[in-house]
Structures are given as C-alpha cells and as structure tokens.
Amino acid sequence: MILKRPLTKLSFLSFSGIAKVAIGFTNRPVIACGYLVIIFLSGCATSIVGHSGQQKTAGKTFVIVGAASGFGRGVAEQLGTYKANVVLAVRRTDLLEEIATNIRTAGGTALVVSTDISKPEEVERLLETTLREYKKVDVCINMAGVGGIGCF
Fold first, then answer.
1. Nearest residue to 62 (alpha-carbon basis) of 130, 113, 145
2. Which end of the chain has fewer surrounding CB within 10 Å, N or C?
3. Listed GO cellular component terms (predicted)?
C-alpha cells in the first residue's frame, strides 16, 4: 500500500496486503509483481485522471525502503523514468549506487541513505535527510523485510 498523508503523520506501510490480492489473480509471483506495478503507477499516487505515469510522478519525492533488489528496485528504477525524486534507503548503501545511477540516467534524481528501519533514530535521520534535500515527502514505500504501521 502507498501512504500519502500530511508531513507530520507519515507512516511506512508494506505491500503485503496488495501482494496477497495480486497473487490471488495468479499463481506466478512475477505476474503478481506486474499487477503491483500497474496498481502503483496507474493512480495510487494521485487521483489526476487522464495523465500519464510521468505526469503523475514527475517532481514528486518517493522514499523507498528496501530498494536494493526485487520489487523495490523495480519500482525505484521505474520512478526514475518518470522523472521522480527517489530516496533509496537500505542498510547496505554499496548495493544502491548502480540503482541510483540508473535512476539518474533515466532522468530522475536519486539520494542514497543508509538506514536500518528497525531503529527509530535512523528512520528519523532518513526523514531529516530527505527533507533537507527535497523539502517534502510525497510517498513512502516499505519493501524491506522489517516494518509495521507507525508514525515517525
């Protein structure tokens, strides 16, 4: 799920609920991930009807936790093609330099922040770093193996 709230009440949510729904349509995880990307890029981030994914996401700031591989990486790189600001947050930043380069090459901007979201002080630092760089957060996506619902 994607959460879009006022800056004072941002929360990280995971895609687990949507993943279960998407996997209900097919037994093949790759296709299920395809459904998730379509759900994500077809209007979850905004309600503007009739605009392309690029028009919906260009200039918006997305924080993706767990973007080093799999679905998180796919979403991050797709957002780069849509000219979005993408903040990549994982524990091991060496894994993200290639992804950040791909995002920048595609026309987006990328910021790599070393973050362990199981530690509240690191989540706070992630938010502060993002706000310092982009002045806002539009969407937070948790693709990491750790998470839950909560405000920061």
1. 130
2. C
3. membrane
Q: Could you give the percent of the chain with pLDDT greater than 90?
A: 27
Question: In this structure, what token pair is assigned to residue 124?
Answer: 């706070």
CA–CA distances in Å: residue 69 to residues 8, 34, 124, 137: 29, 15, 23, 22
Residue 26 within a domain: no
What whole-number distance in Å separates Cα of residue 96 and Cα of residue 85?
A: 15
Question: How is residue 42 annotated by DSSP?
Answer: I
Total domains in the fold of the chain: 1
Looking up residue 85, the CATH number of its domain turns out to be 3.40.50.720
Residue 151 lies in a domain: no
Cα-Cα-Cα-Cα dihedral sign, residues 17, 22, 23, 24: positive
